[in-house]
Amino acid sequence: MSASFAPATVVSMFERLLPRQVSPPEPSSARAHAFYVGVGLPSNCSAKGEFNTLAQSLQEAAARPLIYQTLREQAVAGNVDALNDLGWLFLNGKYWRADHGLAHRLFRQAAQQGCARAHYNLAQQYYFGKGLDISYSQVARFYEQAFELGLADAAALLGDLYEEELCLEDHQQVDWQPDHDVAYDWYCRGADAGDIRCRFEIGTRMLNGAGIERDVEAGKYWLELAAAAGNSEAAEELAFFHSNDGLTQRYLFWRDQAVALGSGAALVMKASDQRRQLAEQETLNAACSTGD
Questions:
Q1: Which of 117, 152, 187 is the endpoint of a domain?
Q2: CB-based contacts of 53: which residues, under 8 Å, 6+ apart?
Q3: Any bridge partners for residue 5, and if so which?
Q4: What are phi and psi of 5, to 5 degrees?
Q5: Sign (positive or negative) of CA dihedral 132, 130, 183, 185
Q6: Domain assignment present for 230
Q7: Distance (Å, whole) CA 105 – CA 67
Q8: What's the CATH code of the domain at 291?
Q9: Are residues 258 and 141 in the same domain?
Q10: What is the DSSP string of 24-88?
C-alpha cells in the first residue's frame, strides 16, 4: 500500500495532540486484551486479521516506546497509514493506555485522506461505543464508505448490521431499523466484489430459499466459490446438501473438504459414515456366514 500524506495544517495539529510518550495500559485493559488484539484494522492487516505485523512487533513491551516514536514521527509528517495505526492503538488500549477521543480524531483525519481502513475503524468505534454513543446509522455510513474505497470485507458487516435485531438494556434508543432486503443487497455487492463470506451468505440463502426464491444451481455456484477460497461453512453446507444423495462422489468430496478446512460438523458426519459402513459390512459378513 503506497502511503499518502495529510496537509501541513494537520501535521502541526498532531504535533501538539500526540503525546511525546505513552503510558502502559490500564491493568484491567491488559487483562481483557490478553487473548485478542482488539477491534478495527491497522493499515497492514486484512479484515480477517491476517499479516498483522504491527501487532506482532508490539508483543515485546521493550520495543513499544520505539515503535510509538516511529509511528508518531510518521503521523506528524502526515503519513496517513501511521495516523490510522495510531488511532487503532489508542482505540484498543492493548499496548499502551487507550485514548478514544484521540483515536477518533486520528481516524477522522486518515479517513478524510481516503483511507478505507480508517472509515472501517470509525464504523467499529461507533458500533462498540468506544468513547462515543452507539450509532448504527454512523456505522452503516462509514462501512459503506470503506466499501466504496475498496474494502470488500465491509459489505458482509453491512449485511450483518441490516439483519441485526437490537437487544439493548434500559430501553436504550438506537437510530436503526433492520432491513433484510438491504442486507441481502449488501451480501450480493460483496459477493460480486469477491468477498468470501458474502459468497457464502448468498449461496446458502439461494440453496435453501431462505428469504428469497430458491435457486439451487446459483446457490451451489456461490457456495463452491466460497468453499474453493477456504470457507469451511460453505464446504459444510455443500456436504449437507449432497448428503441426501448418499455416499456419492460429490458428497464425499465436499465432506472431506469441509473436514480439511476445520469443520467439526463435517468431522462428525465422516465418523457417522464410517460407523454406518462398518455396521453394513458386519451385517453383510454375518449374512454370508449364515449362508455358508
A1: 152
A2: 44, 45
A3: 79
A4: -130, 145
A5: positive
A6: yes
A7: 20
A8: 1.25.40.10
A9: no
A10: PPPHHHHHHTTT---SS--TTS-TT-TT-HHHHHTSSGGGHHHHHHHHHHHHHTTBHHHHHHHHH
Write the pLDDT tens digit of every residue in 89-117. 999 999 999 999 999 999 999 999 999 99
Residue span of the structural domain in which 64 resides:
1-152
Are 180 and 162 contacting, i.e. CB atoms less than 8 angstroms apart? yes
The sign of the dihedral angle between the CA atoms of 199, 200, 205, 207 is positive
Number of domains in the chain: 2
For cell 466460497, the residue is 226
Residues 94 and 206 in one domain: no
How many Å is the Cα radius of gyration of the chain?
25
- Check: CB of residue 254 under 8 Å from CB of residue 235: yes
Q: Determine, yes or no, domain membership for 72.
A: yes
Q: pLDDT digit string (tens) for 30-72?
A: 555 544 568 999 987 655 555 567 888 898 989 999 999 999 9
User: Do 215 and 132 fall within a single domain?
Assistant: no
CA-nearest of 183, 176, 185, 182 to 137 is: 176
DSSP letter for each residue of 103-134: HHHHHHHHHHTT-HHHHHHHHHHHHHTSSS--
Hunting for cell 480439511 — which residue is that?
260
What is this structure's pTM?
0.85
How far is Cα 5 from Cα 236, in angstroms, rounded to an integer?
A: 45
